[in-house]
Each structure stands twice: as structure tokens, then as C-alpha cells.
Design a protein that fits this description.
With about 1000 residues, the protein is an alpha/beta fold. It contains 45 helices and 15 strands. Among the domains are: about 160 residues, no CATH class; about 150 residues, P-loop containing nucleotide triphosphate hydrolases (Rossmann fold); about 90 residues; about 190 residues, no CATH class.
Length: about 1000
């Protein structure tokens, strides 16, 4: 395979899925074009690729260049016509699902050139489409299908392919990439063979062994040998401090566009990917709740069918499922010498007996051997290294009463010598990196992350001693962190020997993270910057939450608690937008407790409110109640009017969640009075400008906006829609700063709800569309689907041409992808179907179908409907046939099935409109038959009949039946009255 490097200034490097989306083809076809055989058979050369950290990627420029080559002549003359490549034919069959793109028959389907061979002389995959022999003959003999009509058919298939890729691919976050396997790899032949066999068979695996023995490297080597395309999600457990953080990272990795999937939907998403999940380093010392993690892993294993779990641990974990267990001991003497020889150039010239003594001391422990190699370099060979170990190690860390050292104490003695040899600046950097469990970008270290003069020399020293590891992120970017055994050793040694100096360094690390958050919040405070800020928070969230962990261990350190709670408050936007509501609620509650305990009343007030907001997203009344209890403590500790407004707002939110809308309204209005008074005072204070006064003014405006929005929520629940609309419009006028995009989108959505209830449908539609565009931009995928679905329901009543023309395919595709996620989570085979959730999902499903149909994007529904029926609904229908599901669940499944079937006919009709400018009578009657046979909840409650009438009239050119005529026919049939239905086309 030919490889090349792309010009980074004028090109974009794409992974296989992004490249497939760029062309609108399957990844398999891409890789077939890269093969040397293709270059030999057709004389074009092969599609060149780019190697990025061991992963095959594609240059966008090269894709465009190669497409132009394929578009050119494949032979010198018309009469010499080479065979269409097998890989192209296979792709076309997958693309068309082996049906005729025109009439959808599955028999005698052939390949047709869109631009005739006599003209194009090209077998470009984009110049070929699958049609049946009848349609093909018509095209060749009678030219009944123009190239434009064939192109429209092809575009529909390409759109379906792209939609399928978008729905099925969930790219893992960069932070969950597996580490790159080291080279060369020494020993472990039997263990590696067992691991490869188990990985290939899809079995759950547990790899046990001492810390630093080489468990992670063994798993990395095994994964590197797998060529089955299964994505790997690698979770370094040491980086996390709670089970919620681990599961949150996993949910975010498999969710669309970095937005976490729901907790209940995680198994389905993992199964869809056929993912391998690696939990590396499950130790009792690394987590607050190891039993909770074992339970979570066991439950995940039970709930998945196509997901493989791999766990590494120093312990025998009896709860974690393991169909294959691999116990990892030390390397043998020969392999130990080879590994030591790789770690130092001195091994080849050393005395054999000294070398054997050092190898024997290391006892086959991989990390110890690497550090011993560094000791040889530092002390002039193995004899010098052993002498240093005797001087430093034996006196320093030998376990009392023990005659012989085991692998663990051998590692500690080597670490002790290495640690003693470090200069002060290197040692302090080691302490600092040990308190950044998520790692630090190497370019930060080059610029001087800890020391203003730069940390490059200290980093190089740590690398030479094998105390750190570098995790590649891609495109030359990497993060540096400290190996887990080294991290624990360094922190313990610093705390026991140099506590005051160590705390100073920890303070500088915390200050670095605090300053970084301040930059994110102050310099990137526009709506346009929100996606970037959220991505950067995702990079650093492990480190930021470590600051909270440090503060939890030192609750009396008021300055540390102040820093930690300030950092956590800034994370609210991240938890909210990325759908990490449960994890966020627990984090906010922990920070609120620390703040109130330290007397930081303002922080406690903000955090209590954030706790309630996030807890209510998961209907966790217990956590919301704890947030309210902290707010009550704030009220008793202050007379500050702004904080009293916070308390009132907290009470309003809890009251509304408990169904007490009148009490919620009263509390929200009290909050508004407090906030308005604070705003007036702050506005007057601006006449005497002071540092931070503008920021405080923005905070006061946002507080007023929050109270107005909460009042709107209460009034909406009370059915006082006109009053609620006034509150929401006033709220929009007060929203400011970093969260304006998040808040503005939600407020417009609620305002649209009010306008819809008031019958102002066109205004509602424009507000829904504006909210949806905001949600798409800032990646609030869950809200995007809701907004577009409500827009679809609203368009049943109106037909604004300018608004419809502004709804583009990208927006609808993103909405379909989000609704597909919601449907797959609500209708998951093998899991309980929750009625309330499914009814809400069915409203979203019907609304997004209505939107796609009325806005002229019906072709996008084909892949959407087919994938959902295949992966979710068809398996549930099999459970219905087996008598597994109850009557209520059966009803919900059948409604979903009928909606998706109707979506399929809408897609087919749009295809006919694109090619023939008309919809076939049979297709119209088939659609009407489906609508007539639906339950009244869908026909009337979800207004399916009204939408069908609008679709027939506006898109399909049908004058009759309209909605009233169709409804009359349905009721006559229900009541046993003879009736018929005829179609009258608009003249």
C-alpha cells in the first residue's frame, strides 16, 4: 500500500469513516481502491493513504484527485470495455440493497451507467447505479430515463449510504484510544497466543499480575494483532476517581458527536459498534468504590450481546465476568536480558555475572527492568546499578523482617534509587504530573507548564528513567502522564519526606488548572466558541475533577476548596450539554458540600442550584432534595439578596418537579424581585468602574433571565401560555456571556411551545427552527431532535415557503440521527420498554418524519427507517411473536413499526418525484392504506391524518383526498359504512 504525507496547510486528514462520508461510499470500497491489484489491473495507480499513529487515514485532496482519475476514460477506445471491478459491483449491491433503484424489484438487477459508456468510458462508482433489466432496457433503447433522472436515483442511494454511516458510526473520543503497542515485544508467547484466541472468539478476558509486570502492554499487543475492525474503547481506570466518571466517559465515547448516550442506552450503543471495552488497572486503591465498578461491569456484560470486555488488575476479581483468565508472571531470564538490553546500550558490554545479578534482582518484572536499564546508564553499568540499589534501596524501602525481596519491592527499590538521582526540578515535575492523572499536552510542557523557563529538560530526564508514558492523540499531538506505580510511589514519597514543598507544587498545579478554566470562560465567551470550549473541557475533565478529589481530602484548606469549587462551577455547561447529567449532579453535590463546609456561601449557592438542575434531568429527587437542603443552609447563613434569590429559585425548581406549579410560580417571582434589585444596584455601581464590574453585571442579567425563564416554566405548566410567552421574551433580553447559546436555544424552544399553544403556528415554527440551529451548532443533540420534531408537528398547520426552503438536508440529517438514537434507546431488544418514555419518543419519531416529508427531504428517511427496523423494531416483533412482550409494549412497538413503514413509502415517493416528477398511484394507495390502519392515538392524537393530507396536497400534487376526506373514509370504514376512496390529482 502506497503511503504519503499530506500538505497540512491545504489539506484535511480524514479517518476511514470521514473519508467514506466525503465520497458517500462504504469504507470497504475505499480500502479496495488502495490495493496494488487495482493499480495493476486498471493502470490508474492506487488510492494513496496517510499513516497517522498506526492508523490508515485519507487525505481529502487525494480523495478528490483520485475521484477525478476515476472519472476519466478507463480505455483508449469505446470498443475496448474493461470489466467493472468486483469491489465496485459489491459496493453497488450494498448501496442499492440489491434492488432496482427505480422500481425496487429484487430480480434481474443490473449495473447501469448514468452517463453512457460511449460518452464517459468510465466505471467510476458514482457513474453506476443498480436498476432491473426492464428499466435498464428502457433506458438503453428508448432513453426513457434521462441521465438527470438516473443521477437523482443515484443521489438518493448515496444519501442513504451517508445516513447509514452517520447512524451506525460512533467514533470513540481521542482519550479512549488504546495505547500504541510497543516494539519490539519480548517474551509472553504463550500468553499472547491465548489472548489473541480469546479476543478473536469475543470472550470476556481478565489479565492479572503485579503492577508494572506488563499487563497493559500484553493487551495492547493482542489488540494490535486484531484485524476485524472492531473499535476499542480503552479506559485507564487510574485516571478516574469514581464509577460515575468511568461510565460517563464510556457513554460520551459512544454517543453522537461527543454527546453522552443515556445510561440505559449504553449497552445498545456498544453492541451496535461491536466494541471492545478495556478496563485497564482495576485496583482497590484507585477508586473510592471498586465494588460499585465491579457491579457496573457485571451489569454491562449481562446487558450486552456483541460487546467484548477486557479487564486488567493486580487482583483476582471474582465479580467481574471473565470467560478467560490469564495470570501474568515474570519474564524468563532470556527475555529479561533482551528487555534490559533494549532499555540500555550498556548491556552488551557489561560483565555477564553482574548483568545476571541485576536481571535476577528484577525478577522478570518489566517496569523494573526498564528502570534498571536507566540505572545502568546513570551508574556506569549493572555493577554500579546494584551498588546504588544496595546503598539507597535497602536502607530506604526494604520491608522490615523480610529476607527476600519480591517483584513489588524490587520495583520500589529501583524507583527509590531513580527518585534519589533526580534533580529537584525533575522531581517537582514528577510530583506535578502525578497530580494530572489525565496527562498534560506535551506542547504545554514545552512552553513551561510548571516552570516559566520550560519543562523540556525535566521531561526528557523522566523519559530516560522510564517514569512517564506518552499517549498519542493524532496529528503530532500527544499527552504525557506518569505510570500508575510511579505515580503512587512519587506521591507517597513526597508526602512523607517533603510535604511542605510537595503542597506548594500541588498548589501550582491547581493554579494552572484554575487559570486554564478562567481563560476558557473569559476569552471564549461567545456562542460561536461553545463547541470548542466543550471539546477542551472533555480533554481536561479528568484533571479538573482531580482538583475536586484533592479538596475532598483536605476540606479544611479553604483556598484549595475555593479553587476546586470554582473549577466545578465552570463545568456545568459541559455536563449539561454533553448529557452527563447524573455524573454532573454527583460532582456538583460533592462540591456544594465542600463549599458550605468551608463557609464559601456564594459558591455553595451556585453549586446547590446546579445540583438541582442536573438531578432533575435524570428525575433524581433524592439528589435534588440534597441540593435544596444545601440551599436552605445558604439561606440561614446570609442576608445577601442575590443568594436569597438563588434559594428562591431552587425552591421553585423543586416545587415544579413535584407538580406544585403555583408554589413554583410564587418562588420564581420572589427570585426575580431579588435579582432585579441586585441588577439595579450593579448598574448604578458601573458609574464607578471597578475590575470585574462588567462580568458581575452579566451575572446579574443572567440571574434575572433564569428567574424569568423559571416563571415561564411554571406558567406553561399552569396553561397560562400568553403570560409564559412574555416571561420567555423578557428572559431572552437578559441572557449574556458564555452560556448564552445554551440558554437562548432552550428559551426559544419553550417560547415556541407557548406560541404553538396560542395558535401562532408560523411564529412557533420560526422559533423552533432557530432553536434547532443553535442546538446543532453547540452540539446539544438531544435538544436538536426535540426542536425539529416539534417543528414537524407545527408544519402540519402551515406552509411557509421561505421557512421550508431554509431547512437544509444537513439539519434534517442531524435531527434524524438524534431521533434514531432516542428510538434505539427506548426500543432496545431484551430490555424493559418504559411506556412514558416510549410515548415521548414516538412523538419525536412522528415529528421528524413529518418534517422530512413536508420539507422535501423524504429521501433521507429510507436509510433511517430501514436501520431502525432492522436493529430495533424487527427483533422486538420477534419477541412479540414469541409471547415475551406484554400488550402495552406490543402496542408501542407496532406504532413505531407503522411509522417507520410510512417513512419508507415517503422516501420512495420522493425518489419517484425526483426521477418521474410524479408519484405512482400504487404507492399513494399503499401509504393511505397504512394510515387508515393505524390506531386512533397515532391518527388523531399525533395528527397523522392531517399530516398525510398536507403531504398529499403540498408535495405529491393530490387535490383529493384531503385530510377531511381521508378522515371521513376512515370513520366510515370503522363504523361499517360502505365507502370508497379515489385520488384526484391537481390539474
Amino acid at each position: 500500500m502506497v503511503r504519503m504525507e499530506a500538505d497540512q496547510k491545504h489539506d484535511v486528514i480524514l479517518n476511514e469513516h470521514e473519508a467514506a462520508l466525503h465520497w458517500g461510499v462504504t469504507p470497504e470500497l475505499l480500502f479496495n481502491y488502495t490495493r496494488a491489484r487495482f493499480a495493476q489491473d486498471y493502470g490508474f495507480g492506487s488510492l494513496q493513504t496517510v499513516d497517522r499513529d498506526g492508523r490508515t487515514c485519507f487525505s481529502r485532496n487525494e480523495l478528490d484527485r483520485f475521484s477525478l482519475v476515476l472519472s476519466g476514460p478507463w480505455s483508449a477506445t469505446v470498443h475496448r470495455k474493461p470489466a467493472i471491478p468486483t469491489a465496485v459491483i459489491e459496493h453497488l449491491m450494498v448501496e442499492a440493497r440489491n434492488e432496482c433503484a427505480r422500481c425496487h424489484t429484487g430480480t434481474a438487477v443490473e449495473n447501469a451507467h448514468i452517463i453512457a459508456w460511449a460518452i464517459s468510458r468510465s466505471h467510476h462508482h458514482d457513474n453506476l447505479v443498480r436498476v432491473c433489466s426492464n428499466c435498464h432496457t428502457e433506458h438503453d433503447l428508448h432513453r426513457s430515463l434521462s441521465p438527470e433522472q438516473l443521477r437523482a436515483l443515484k443521489d438518493r442511494l448515496v444519501a442513504r449510504t451517508r445516513q447509514s454511516i452517520m447512524l451506525r458510526v460512533r467514533a470513540p473520543l481521542d482519550q479512549l484510544r488504546p495505547p500504541q503497542a510497543g516494539a519490539p515485544f519480548f517474551g509472553r508467547i504463550d500468553e499472547l497466543e491465548r489472548l489473541e484466541t480469546a479476543l478473536s472468539a469475543g470472550k470476556s478476558i481478565l489479565v492479572c499480575g503485579a503492577g508494572g509486570i506488563g499487563k497493559s502492554e500484553l493487551v495492547a499487543q493482542g489488540l494490535a494483532r486484531m484485524n476485524d475492525g472492531r473499535p476499542v474503547l480503552w479506559l485507564d481506570v487510574e485516571r478516574f476517581s469514581s464509577v460515575g466518571e468511568i461510565m460517563g466517559a464510556l457513554r460520551t465515547a459512544v454517543g453522537p458527536e461527543g454527546v453522552a448516550c443515556s445510561k440505559a442506552g449504553l449497552p445498545a450503543h456498544l453492541d451496535l459498534l461491536h466494541a471492545r471495552v478495556v478496563l485497564d488497572g482495576v485496583e482497590r486503591s484507585s477508586l473510592d468504590d471498586i465494588d460499585g465498578l465491579e457491579d457496573a461491569v457485571r451489569d454491562l456484560f449481562a446487558a450486552t450481546r456483541h460487546t467484548q470486555l477486557v479487564t486488567t488488575s493486580q487482583l483476582s476479581l471474582y465479580v467481574v465476568p471473565a470467560e478467560v483468565s490469564i495470570a501474568l508472571g515474570g519474564l524468563n531470564s532470556s527475555d529479561s536480558r533482551d528487555l534490559l538490553g533494549q532499555a540500555t546500550a550498556r548491556a552488551a558490554d557489561d560483565r555477564a555475572e553482574d548483568l545476571e545479578a541485576l536481571v535476577g534482582f528484577c525478577d522478570g518484572h518489566a517496569l523494573t527492568l526498564r528502570i534498571a536499564g536507566a540505572l545502568m546508564d546513570a551508574y556506569g553499568g549493572s555493577a554500579g546499578a546494584l551498588a546504588a540499589i544496595r546503598r539507597h534501596g535497602a536502607a530506604g524501602v526494604r520491608i522490615p523482617g523480610r529476607r527476600h525481596q519480591n517483584r513489588r519491592t524490587s520495583l520500589e527499590e529501583c524507583l527509590d534509587v531513580a527518585y534519589a538521582a533526580l534533580d529537584d526540578d525533575v522531581r517537582t515535575l514528577l510530583w506535578a504530573l502525578s497530580n494530572a492523572p489525565g496527562g498534560v499536552y506535551t506542547f504545554y510542557l514545552d512552553e513551561g507548564w510548571l516552570n516559566d523557563a520550560g519543562d523540556a529538560d525535566a521531561v526528557a530526564t523522566l523519559r530516560r528513567w522510564h517514569l512517564t508514558r506518552e499517549r498519542s492523540i493524532g496529528d503530532g499531538v500527544a499527552r504525557l502522564d506518569v505510570l500508575a506505580p510511579v505515580r503512587h510511589f512519587a506521591i507517597a514519597r513526597a508526602q512523607s519526606e517533603s510535604l511542605s514543598d510537595y503542597l506548594v507544587i500541588v498548589g501550582r498545579v491547581v493554579q494552572n488548572f484554575e487559570s486554564w478554566v478562567a481563560v476558557m470562560e473569559l476569552q471564549y465567551d461567545t456562542p460561536e466558541a461553545t463547541p470548542y470550549v466543550l471539546d477542551r473541557y472533555a480533554d481536561e475533565v479528568v484533571n479538573l475533577l482531580h482538583v475536586l478529589h484533592l479538596a475532598s481530602g483536605r476540606p479544611d484548606d479553604k483556598e484549595l476548596v475555593r479553587s476546586a469549587t470554582g473549577i466545578v462551577r465552570a463545568l456545568m455547561r459541559y455536563f449539561f450539554v454533553r448529557r452527563l447529567h447524573e455524573q454532573g449532579a454527583y460532582v456538583m453535590r460533592e462540591a456544594a458540600r465542600l463549599a458550605i463546609g468551608a463557609g464559601l456561601i456564594e459558591s455553595a449557592s451556585d453549586l446547590a442550584m446546579q445540583t438541582i438542575v442536573l438531578a432533575q434531568r435524570t428525575n433524581d429527587r433524592l439528589i435534588a432534595g440534597e441540593g435544596l437542603a444545601i440551599a436552605d443552609q445558604v439561606e440561614r447563613a446570609t442576608t445577601d439578596e442575590r443568594l436569597l434569590g438563588d434559594v428562591a429559585l431552587c425552591r421553585s425548581m423543586v416545587s415544579l418537579s413535584e407538580g406544585a406549579a403555583l408554589e413554583a410560580e410564587a418562588s420564581a417571582r420572589i427570585a426575580f424581585q431579588h435579582y432585579r434589585h441586585c441588577l439595579q444596584k450593579q448598574t448604578e455601581a458601573l458609574e464607578i468602574s471597578s475590575p470585574g464590574s462588567t462580568q458581575r453585571l452579566e451575572e446579574r442579567h443572567n440571574a434575572v433571565a433564569s428567574a424569568l425563564s423559571q416563571t415561564g416554566f411554571a406558567l406553561l405548566a399552569l396553561g397560562r401560555f400568553d403570560e409564559a410567552a412574555i416571561q420567555y421574551r423578557h428572559a431572552l433580553q437578559h441572557q449574556r456571556g458564555t452560556s448564552i447559546a445554551v440558554n437562548e436555544g432552550q428559551t426559544k424552544h419553550q417560547l415556541a411551545n407557548c406560541e404553538s399553544h396560542l395558535g401562532n403556528h408560523e411564529e412557533a415554527a420560526r422559533l423552533y427552527l432557530s432553536a434547532a440551529r443553535t442546538f446543532l451548532f453547540i452540539q446539544m443533540e438531544e435538544y436538536l431532535g426535540h426542536a425539529l420534531s416539534e417543528l414537524g408537528h407545527t408544519l402540519v398547520d402551515i406552509d411557509p415557503p421561505d421557512l421550508l426552503a431554509s431547512i437544509d438536508a444537513e439539519l434534517v440529517s442531524a435531527g434524524l440521527a438524534n431521533v434514531a438514537v432516542a428510538v434505539s434507546e427506548a426500543f432496545t431488544p431484551g430490555r424493559k420498554i418504559v411506556d412514558e418514555r416510549c410515548f415521548q419518543t414516538l412523538r419525536s419519531l412522528s415529528g421528524i418524519i413529518y418534517l422530512a416529508g413536508l420539507a422535501g427531504h423524504g429521501m433521507l428517511l429510507e436509510g433511517f427507517a430501514a436501520d431502525l427496523r432492522l436493529h430495533s423494531i424487527d427483533p422486538l416483533k420477534q419477541q412479540i411473536e414469541a409471547g415475551i412482550l406484554n400488550a402495552g409494549s406490543k402496542f408501542l412497538v407496532m406504532v413505531a413499526d407503522r411509522l417507520l413503514a410510512i417513512a419508507g413509502t415517503v422516501a420512495a415517493a420522493e425518489g419517484e418525484l425526483a426521477t418521474c416528477k410524479d408519484v405512482d398511484d400504487d404507492l399513494i394507495f399503499r401509504t393511505l392504506g397504512m394510515v387508515c390502519g393505524t390506531h386512533s392515538w397515532l391518527r388523531d392524537g399525533m395528527r397523522l391524518v392531517d399530516w398525510t393530507g398536507a403531504l398529499l396536497s403540498r408535495r405529491w400534487g393530490i387535490e383529493y383526498p384531503d385530510a377531511s376526506g381521508l378522515r371521513e373514509f376512515i370513520y366510515d370504514r370503522r363504523d361499517g359504512v360502505a365507502d370508497s376512496l379515489e385520488i384526484r390529482r391537481r390539474s
